[in-house]
Amino acid sequence: MLAAMVALPFAEIYLLVQVGHVIGVWWTLAILVGEAMLGAWLVRREGSRAWTALNSAFASGRMPTGELADTALVLVGGVLLVMPGFITDVFGLLFLLPFTRPLARKVLAFFIARRMNKLGLSTVLIRQDGTIIQGETVIEGESVEGKTVPNDPASSGADPGGRRSNDGRNQPPSSGPVIIAGEIEEQPEP
């Protein structure tokens, strides 16, 4: 990664010189200025769309994973397009354009998951249809409000940590593990 960051400016300069020799210095500069202007326009347009989608996800109570990734990709893509150079412009366009951003999001998620696995952190990749691609065992279930479990501290009037002070007020829960009581029901095979 560090080697790529060091090599990128040299590759950009080499490519700029080669393009300048082929089409001329003024045309090369005109293309770079045009790409920067296009990048600024795309960042404004796609940034406001991504921000609106992120806010609507928060307002609806959903986890905004895709929207958050899109917002980050738009930001990074805009920075790459404003930087002078053709290589960064290609990556900036991949991150900014709405029809290439889902591919960039998937590739980015793959590399992040691979890096996390190398660090020893477990990851679970789940498709939008709910199928597991790789990772840990996932037990499907649902949360039902209003039911209490026998011997549940919440049903006896205590707080989830199960402690009360002498005057009857709840104390903060202990820092121990959170235990979720329940049962696993076998689903009949279809």
TrEMBL record:
<feature type="region of interest" description="Disordered">
    <location>
        <begin position="143"/>
        <end position="190"/>
    </location>
</feature>
<feature type="transmembrane region" description="Helical">
    <location>
        <begin position="72"/>
        <end position="97"/>
    </location>
</feature>
<dbReference type="InterPro" id="IPR007313">
    <property type="entry name" value="FxsA"/>
</dbReference>
<protein>
    <recommendedName>
        <fullName>FxsA family protein</fullName>
    </recommendedName>
</protein>
<dbReference type="Pfam" id="PF04186">
    <property type="entry name" value="FxsA"/>
</dbReference>
<keyword id="KW-0472">Membrane</keyword>
<feature type="transmembrane region" description="Helical">
    <location>
        <begin position="25"/>
        <end position="43"/>
    </location>
</feature>
<dbReference type="GO" id="GO:0016020">
    <property type="term" value="C:membrane"/>
</dbReference>
<keyword id="KW-1133">Transmembrane helix</keyword>
<keyword id="KW-0812">Transmembrane</keyword>
